[in-house]
Every structure is written in C-alpha cells, then in structure tokens.
Amino acid sequence: MNEAYITLGKSGKGELVVKKSEFIGYASHIKNEEQALDFIASVRRRHADAKHNVYAYMLKSNNIMRYSDDKEPQGSAGVPVLDVIRKGGFTDAVIVVTRYFGGVLLGVGGLVRAYSAAAKLAVEDAGIVKYELFTILSFRCDYKTYPKIQSEISKIPAKIDNVEYGEDIEITISLPKDIANDFCSAVSELSLGKIQVENKGSHYDTR
Question: Which of 39, 125, 201, 203 fits a 20 to 30 Å CA distance from 45?
C-alpha cells in the first residue's frame, strides 16, 4: 500500500473557444472504474448534442489507464487529455472534454493544444490534494485521564472518528501513519502504561 498519492480535490470545469469550436472540460476525483464510467456517461448525457466527448482516466489500483478520441483523429484528443493526468502527477481522476465543432478545422496540432488546455482548466478548477495513509487507533480511558488524551490529540493532525461514553470512554481516531507510533508512546506514558491502544487498520485521508 503506497504511503501517499495526489488526486483531485473536487469536481472542476473549464471552457475555451478555439476558432469557433467550443471546448468544455470536466474533471473529477474517482475511486474506481465504475465511478469513472458513470462520470463519463453523465457528461455524455449532458452534451448529447455534441459531436465529441473525449475522455481519459487513471486509477492507482492496478495502474489502470483508459482514454478515447471519440471520433477525433487518432492521438489528437484522448492521449493529450491522459497526458494532463500523467504529467500532473495525480491519479484516481477522470477528465472529459466536450467539443462543439465551430466549422473551422484545427488540424491535429490544434486539437492537441485545445484538448490539453480545456483539460488543464478543469483540473485547475478542481484543485489538487494529497492523500496520505492514516492509521486507525482505538482505545479506552477513564474519565480522569480523558482531558489529558484530548490535549494530546489536539497537538497532532488527528481526526476523531468516534467517542462512546460508558463506564469508560472508548475513542477511535485516525492519524497519519508516520506519527502513529509516537502518539501511542505518548498515550502509554501519560496513562502510566494502563491504556492499551489497538490498531484497527488504515485508510487514505487528507491532513
């Protein structure tokens, strides 16, 4: 499991007109191929009257890469859009660029530049974020120790997933993997070894 990866922060959109042809780019973070195909289908429905809906997507799982020129000259559309993802260094992303033909031929070079530009505008609008591997920790503490635990958690980029109040307090938090061991040591020290921290696995999140 990789320690971190770069992807899109949200869905984004960008538009430009080149020699009367309108290019509309859409970009989005995705988690799997099904979401990529759903996103592509939604753009196609929205622009069913457009002549071309070019797409590209990349997933970190199995290093999946797909693209389509959608009837544009081979290599003039899908590959340039895919290159925006590859050269941008991010993954788990899909980009669709819709083109409304304006009656003026752009040539292969012109198409490459236009599709790339529309894709980049959509990516800029979506923004880039870094996902890191977070460790999930669970432990119990008494009410007397709880304020000390809260203080320790406030010092780090941890996210409280759940707190249950009973005879004791059960806490589940997520925190970056690289500081998990230090946090466990701190909890053991402030509780004089009484608190046993359980590792519940990991997931990706942003700090």
Answer: 125
Task: Give the pLDDT score at 1.
Answer: 56
Rounded CA separation 124/168 (Å): 48
Q: What would the mean pLDDT of 11-37 be, rounded to a whole number?
A: 97
Answer yes or no: are the C-beta atoms of 28 and 11 closer than 8 Å. yes
CA nearest neighbour of 193 among 133, 127, 141? 141
Task: Check if CATH label 3.30.70.240 holds for domain 132-205.
Answer: yes
Alpha-carbon gap, residue 57 to 124, rounded angstroms: 16
- Rounding to the nearest 10 degrees, give the CA dihedral for residues 61, 63, 69, 70: -30
CATH class of 4-126: alpha beta
Backbone phi, psi, residue 195, to 5°? -90, 125
